Amino acid sequence: MIFQLCYTSTAARDMQREDLVELLRISRAKNEASGLTGLLLFSAERFVQLLEGDEEAVRTLYARICEDNRHHEITTIFEREVEARDCPDWSMGFQALPESEWLEFPNPDGTEKGLRPMLEAMGRARAILQSVRERGLDPERDV
Ligand SMILES: Cc1cc2nc3c(=O)[nH]c(=O)nc-3n(C[C@H](O)[C@H](O)[C@H](O)COP(=O)(O)O)c2cc1C
Question: What is this structure's pTM?
């Protein structure tokens, strides 16, 4: 079984193109070495990332990502076991999405707590991850 974890976070500062290039260079090399794959989406200072692979490797990486001061307001959207990877070919696919395609996630530190906003966030995250997977990575939206 493959373990998947998806979270959303807010960039701590303005992410320049070079910042994203560097983040992805390291991430892709490390993920490849530990057999992890996934997809990182970025828009309007928000990240959504899907990590997938061996459960322990995913949890170890997520713990390190949570300590990373380049982002904050980190909220897990879902964790699940799946039969097969959704992004087998991407050590970390990346797409910067136009705001018009972006999702409004519940404010993680706001008043919107509880099951319903989390289920809505999960549904929207799955829908947008799936639409990117189906149409493939657009080089125009990579860095
Ligand atoms: C939004 C975001 C996504 C990240 N994704 C990954 C990733 O997929 N793989 C990875 O190894 N590091 C990722 N990182 C970077 C890690 O937090 C960490 O800096 C990196 O793995 C280097 O860790 P090390 O200094 O312990 O070697 C991400 C960081 C941020 C802010």
Answer: 0.91
Using the mean position of ligand 1's atoms as its centre, give its distance from the Cα of residue 118 in Å: 24
pLDDT at 108: 53
Weakest-pLDDT range from 12-21, 30-39, 50-59: 12-21
Residue ranges of domains in the chain, CATH in brackets: 2-141 (3.30.70.100)
Ligand 1 mutation pick, 64, 69, 70, max ligand atoms within 8 A of CB: 64
| Alpha carbon distance 5, 33 (integer Å) | 18
Q: Is 37 in the pocket of ligand 1 (CB under 6 A)?
A: no
The tens digit of pLDDT for each residue in 74-94 reads 999 999 999 999 999 999 999
Rg of the chain over Cα atoms, rounded to whole angstroms, equals: 14
Q: Which backbone phi and psi does 59 adopt, to 5 degrees? A: -65, -35
